[in-house]
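To whoever picks this up:

The nightly regression suite flagged DUF302 domain-containing protein as changed. Nothing in the input moved, so I suspect the structure step. Input below, exactly as stored in the fixture:
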Amino acid sequence: MTLTRLLCAAALVCGATPVLADDFITATSDDAFDDVTFAVESAIVGRGLVIDSHTHTGDMLERTRADVGSDVVLFDGAEIFLFCSAEVSRKVMEADPTNIRYCPYAIAVYQRPGEPVTVGYMHRDEPTMAPVNDLLHGLVDEAMNG
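Regenerated output under the current build:
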């Protein structure tokens, strides 16, 4: 079984709804956006990781919507957490120093109008990135399933 299929199977067992598109792994929740965002942040910090950046992408897009000539509301909320793990990063970069290009790691939380909250992360197909994929999957699973 490929890692991607294994991740999908694990997500289904845990009650998440996985969707694969361009290696962006997602799961959805009917919980409130703020609750899901808090759960993702708590999962990251709870593992002793430091959030380098917490972007408020949805706020920026809404604030600048008219300025760029658009009337499309993309998100009811959209935030991205950027963070790194010294242990995992060292492991994947010792295996392949070019893996530096993937650090920091990101988990996005967003909600389109009228849709459930989505949490997603980039899954990397490189075998040396398996520890990062495992970390991101574990964090999303913890946030979505407690």
